[in-house]
Amino acid sequence: MSVSQHGMWSSKLGFLLAAVGSAVGLGNIWRFSYVTAENGGGAFVLIYLAAIVIVGLPVMIAEVMLGRAGRQSPIHTVATLARESKASTGWAWIGWSGLICGMLILSFYCVIAGWTLSYGTTYLLGLFTDGPAVSDAGAHFGALTSSTGQLLFWHFLFVALTVFVVARGVEKGIESAVRLMIPSLFLILIALVIYGMTSGHFMQTLNYLFQPDFSKVTGQTLIAALGQAFFSLSLGMAGLMAYGAYVPDKASLPRLCALICTADTAVALLAGLAIFPIVFAFALDPHTAGPGLVFVALPTAFAQMGWGDLYGLAFFTLLAFAAWSSTISLVEGGTAYLVEQGLSRPVAAVALGGGAGTLGILSALSFTHLKDVSLFGRNLMDNIDFVASNVLLPLGGLGIAVFAGWILSEKLRHEQLGGLSAATYTVWLTLVRYVAPLLIGLIFLSSIGLI
Ligand code: PHE
Questions:
Q1: Among 4, 10, 7, residue whose Cα is nearest residue 251
Q2: Which residues have CB under 8 Å from 34's CB, separation 6+?
Q3: Domain spans of the chain?
Q4: CB distance 248 to 48 below 8 Å
Q5: How high does pLDDT run on average in the chain?
Q6: What pLDDT, in 10s, does the model give residues 295-307?
Q7: Mean pLDDT, to the nearest integer, of 366-388?
Q8: Ligand 1 near 322 CB (within 6 A)
Q9: What is the CATH number of domain 12-447?
Q10: Ligand 1 centroid – CA 173 distance (Å)
């Protein structure tokens, strides 16, 4: 039985919880709702779901499998596997791209995750006062996002929380937090969906989310859907590769990955069904709300609901936990690499968190002093998100698929996926060899206007 020097999950359930914790986060609730709105609803959702099944699941199996085969940080894992397969160690670029991408995502992710801490605190204090804690959600959101001091305070607090857990090692903290958190998040989302169903704008939401209007689909819609699928599944930045290194030998990876994809998709769709009825009921404009959508829509509903402050507290606390279990996976791969280079785990985690946290100042300031700075029609934060989510993640996914499908020796592939039936194995291999690279490649070319 091979083990990793960084420790192991206590069981396959431990991995499942950590990976679901990584996948389920702001991407499912905050990013899914506003990216769906920006891309016109139904057709986008359909392409997103197709991307998860055709590209996301097979590439996830490949990514986790590489991790378990190498049992080191992603950079050294890919280099070792390349050597064992008699290929160039230059393939380690997959690990490097993942490390950089993780830092980029962490930098803006903590800014938004910081908002969940701020809202959670507001609702907590609201329990002790009369009336709703947030009565004018738009104004509340405006006040938070126009204060540089507040943005930076909550941002760095979130970076510190992330570094804290990674420095201590992942197993105990994360495993037990996620065990409690994911079921609670499901419950509260279902409660909010029921509220949405009874608020009268549920049919409009169903039409909006599930009735595709293909006239709205452009190359940009495709790249946005693929980017959202990768972002939401935590795919292509080698975070799941790092987690894969700690999975016991016997666990069946395809089954675990299918569960992760299902849980992640369910949370995103539930979030859509909870959020859009409120958006429509209060005549908020989904297209122009942008990143503030969840932070304005849900508090608007909480203000009208009995026990609204309690709902607000529960929701934003859970969202903060969901974000926390995701940020950890953004740093783990890089931390493992620095530990292999001789640093202690705490020093490695602080170095990476400090770097990404500093870069995050740019994203925080995108709401205040640097609001008007625009590159390619996007503000700074959206540019960092675009490069990380829509360029580096699909590129990393492409590299993972090609490496696992073409470069890795058949012997290593069989060691990892030997439990699959011959037919299922062939389907998987066809998807990672041909279908995923082709689709990712085509979508890329179309997004930069080449086809
Ligand atoms: N999947 C996480 C979310 O949906 C974000 C994430 C992306 C985490 C990439 C790790 C790697 O919030």
A1: 10
A2: 286, 289, 290, 291, 292, 293, 294
A3: 12-447
A4: no
A5: 91
A6: 998 898 889 888 8
A7: 89
A8: no
A9: 1.10.4160
A10: 18
Average pLDDT of the residues in 342-365 = 97
Q: Is 237 in the pocket of ligand 1 (CB under 6 A)?
A: yes
Helix (H, G, I), strand (E, B) or coil at 94: helix
Please work out whether the CB of residue 4 comes within 6 Å of at least one atom of ligand 1.
no
Ligand 1, atom nearest to 264 Cα: 4
What is the rounded CA–CA span in Å between residue 222 and residue 383?
A: 18
Q: Give Dmax over CA atoms of the chain in angstroms.
A: 69
Is pLDDT at 48 greater than 90 in this prediction? Answer: yes
Strand, helix or coil at 193? Answer: helix
Q: Which of 339, 336, 335, 337 is CA-nearest to residue 352?
A: 335
Average pLDDT over every residue of 60-76: 97
Mutate to test the pocket of ligand 1, among 234, 332, 389, 393 (most ligand atoms within 8 A of CB): 234
pLDDT confidence of residue 188 = 87
Q: With contact defined as beta carbons under 8 Å apart, do 119 and 318 qualify?
A: no
Contact (Cβ atoms closer than 8 angstroms) between residue 121 and residue 316: no
Does residue 375 carry a pLDDT above 80? Answer: yes
308 pLDDT higher than 70: yes
Q: What is the rounded CA–CA span in Å between residue 213 and residue 293?
A: 22
With contact defined as beta carbons under 8 Å apart, do 134 and 355 qualify?
no
Amino acid symbol at 450: L
- What confidence score (pLDDT) does residue 34 get? 83
Q: Residue 378: beta bridge partners?
A: 375
DSSP state of 52: I
The answer for residues whose C-beta is within 8 angstroms of residue 406's C-beta and 6 or more apart is: 433
Q: Which of 322, 274, 304 is closest to 137 using CA atoms?
A: 304
Binding site membership of 265 for ligand 1 (Cβ less than 6 Å): no
pLDDT of residue 128: 92
Region 96-100 average pLDDT: 97
For ligand 1, atom 11, the nearest C-alpha belongs to 234
- Answer whether 94's CB lies under 8 Å from 120's CB: no
Give yes or no for a contact between 92 and 344, defined as CB atoms under 8 angstroms apart. Answer: no
Residue 171 has pLDDT above 80, yes or no: no
User: What token pair was written down for 120?
Assistant: 């959670």
CB 76 within 8 A of CB 8: no
Reported pTM: 0.93
